[in-house]
Amino acid sequence: MAAPGEGLSAAARKNRAYWDATSDAYQERHGPQLEGGMAWGVWQIPESELGVLGDVAGLDVLELGCGAAQWSIALARRGARTTGLDISPRQLEHARRAVAQAGVEVRLVEASAERTPFEDASFDVVFCDHGAFNFVDPRVVVPEAARVLRPGGLLAFCMASPLVDLFWDNEGDGGAGTMLRNPYFGLAGFETDETAEYQLP
Predict the structure, then answer these.
(1) Does residue 90 fall inside a structural domain?
(2) Which of helix, strand or coil describes residue 64?
(3) What pTM was estimated for this model as a whole?
């Protein structure tokens, strides 16, 4: 098996460096909001309302881009056999502490969602709440997720609407404004000074 970080694309190396550098600040700012998992996206819409994942008891579940593993911990408490994957060693340090504090079993793996270290057909559910689907080319991560899913398995993900990226200032100070800045059919991938991100309309 390759060492963590070996064979990463340039985009993956860039994103890994970004998350290693910003993980502490991210968890300090967003950790309390994400505590307990089981809520989707920026607006934290409860899984109990959406029913995306359903009953996970007894299922093998992979979270792509787990960060501090808030979702994985919550699903483990509901009887899933969870694996949290993240490209950032620093994010996984936060995850290890959170898993130990929660007293549940979550397997944590350092790898890119571009190429995971799992056998074919290893999981019943592969999911991502932002995380890897924002930072890995969907033309790469979707086939990889399909490879590790069992027949009839579920792939679920949440990411920002393409509308956000149409108004995003990639060259200035960042952020979405009120002026249309990017072509809809040119959103496949873009880089800032810090990250490589993807949006497939």
Answers:
(1) yes
(2) strand
(3) 0.89
